[in-house]
Amino acid sequence: MRLSLATKVFIAFAGVTIVFSAVVMFGVERTQTLYGQLRAINHRIVPLGLHLSDVQNDLRSFHVVLNERDPAVLRRTLQLTRLLNALPEDLDDDLTEAALLADFSDLDEVSPTQAEAFEAIHKDLLTLRERGASFSDAAMDFTRQVLSERTQNAEAADAIEKLQNELSAEARALDNRLTMLRAELRVATDEALARADDTERSSVYALGAMSVAALLVAATLMMVVAWTLRPLTTLTQAARRIGAGDYRPLPQPTGRAGHDEVALLTAEFNTMALSLAERDARLHSQHAALLKSERLATIGRMTSLITHELRNPLSSINLNVEMLTDALQERGIGAADDDITPLLETVIEEVDRLRDITEEYLVYARLPSPKTQPEFLDDIVQGLVDFHQWEWSQHGVDIELTLPHEAVQVDVDANQIRQALLNLIKNAVEASPTGSTVHVRVQPLNARARVEIIDAGQGIELEARERLFEPFFSTKTRGTGLGLPMTQQIIEEHHGQLQVESTPGKGTRFYFELPLRAT
User: Fold this and answer.
1) Are 470 and 488 within 8 A, CB to CB?
2) Smallest Cα–Cα separation from 318: which of 286, 343, 355, 290?
């Protein structure tokens, strides 16, 4: 399932909220537990201890009365204590109330260990309550006998003394037992307070640890959010880079992160960058083509004008030289004259060379659009090589032609392709040393046909290669610098591209590709 960026941020925020809520709830729960323990101590243990202390004080006071041996004094003391309601007549009720206070079974805040200790105290108090009830009954009977009018005989006095001794012994036993219970209660109280301190201390530590863990979780989630939003920074930097003209696309996110809005935005951004790059390339190409077209048009007009202005004077010079030759022959100076004839021949040769140059300029300036028709490229190359084979052999260079097994048919202007091939092969022959071989190859390549011309010359330096197709630039001393520009123009008019590869000292390779004719 694909999660949106907003959903991821919400999940991270909800995760942080849940973690901190858990920490708060844990702190509240531990505080409630500690409060419950302290409340149990305050509402049960402290009142129980005070109650047992009051019961023990009453019992000790009655024990003091029991120690009185003078019957008259004992009688008055019992009367006074009865009026003050100080006799332990309700000892069983007091112990019953104490037993109820010692019953911690209804409190959840008490730990199991404490519950066992208080349960033992509760059982002891229940047992002590039964003894207290018997003691209360005996004490009430003792009080009635002492205060009765029939206690004057010796037999009644002996019975009262005996009962007084028994009550005194039981009072001492009850007092000792109450002392032990209070000691056990004090120990249980100290343990409860110590456990409460431990609970408080562990709560503080646990709360601190959970707070640290919550902060770590929050930091982790924030790092995840920052990592999720990091591509936005990359997109911002890429936008600045594109504004500066660098149209390199961004890497597409992978994994589950590659399906959110950032991934979609990255994909659209890359599409935009590629579109801008293509548009910029088209504009650059169109601008370069426009500049080249304007430059060629300007060169064409200048060349046409110069050629037109030179043709008539060259024709006049040539005619006058011929007339001069005839006039010299009429005066007896003929071809055998070694001083004049070579000069005249040189003038005629230079005039012819200038005429050839002007014709070449004129052809370049007035190169027509190609009139294409189906032609076999291998036949064109074969015919051209066969026709000029003798001429090129005069340079001492062999032409090795490699043709495909099947015919290669293209839509071209045969005359213009011959002119382009002638320029390339002628340059290769002139650049190759005597005794070397120029390789000419024709081969189909996917939907195109490739023609390669490889010479054995000294190669072309990088600076010269960069200017090789500029009009009037030539590496030859007597070149016009129009052969390769004309060849490039012809190839481009046929929807091809002329390329050159050269390594100084290892020869040069020119090649171009033309689209094959669709069958």
Assistant:
1) no
2) 355
pTM of the model: 0.43
| Nearest in space to 428 (alpha carbons), one of 458, 461, 473 | 458
Task: Name the 3-class secondary structure at 39.
Answer: helix
Among candidate residues 122, 66, 132, the one with its CA nearest the CA of residue 94: 132
Number of helices followed by number of strands (H, E) in the chain: 12, 7
pLDDT of residue 256: 47
Q: Give the pLDDT confidence score for residue 467 in this predicted structure.
A: 80
**At CA 217, angle to CA 215 and CA 221, rounded to 5?**
115
- 24 alpha carbon, distance to own chain's centre: 33
Sign of the four-CA dihedral 6, 9, 15, 16? negative
Query: Which among 192, 169, 215 has a CA at the least distance from the CA of 22?
Result: 215
- Phi/psi at 407 (5° precision): -65, 145
CA-to-CA distance for 472 and 348, rounded, in angstroms? 24
Q: List the 508-515 sheet strands across, edge first.
A: 398-402, 437-445, 448-454, 508-515, 497-502
Is the separation of the CB atoms in 434 and 490 below 8 Å? no
Q: Which residues contact 433 (CB under 8 A, 6 or more apart)?
A: 456, 457
| pLDDT above 70 as % of the chain | 74
d(CA 237, CA 102): 75
Per-residue pLDDT of 160-197, as tens digits, reads 778 878 878 888 888 888 888 888 778 877 777 777 77
Q: What is the pLDDT of residues 240-298, one digit of tens each?
A: 877 777 767 767 665 545 556 667 777 777 788 788 778 887 887 777 767 666 666 66
> Could you tell me the two tokens for 67?
């120690």
Beta-bridged to residue 450, according to DSSP, are: 443, 513
First to last CA, the chain: 50
Cβ proximity of 218 and 16 under 8 Å: yes
Give just the sign of the alpha carbon dihedral 176, 178, 181, 183.
negative
| 508 against 85, higher pLDDT | 508
Which phi-psi region, left, alpha or beta, contains residue 501 (left: φ > 0; alpha: ψ -120 to 50)?
beta
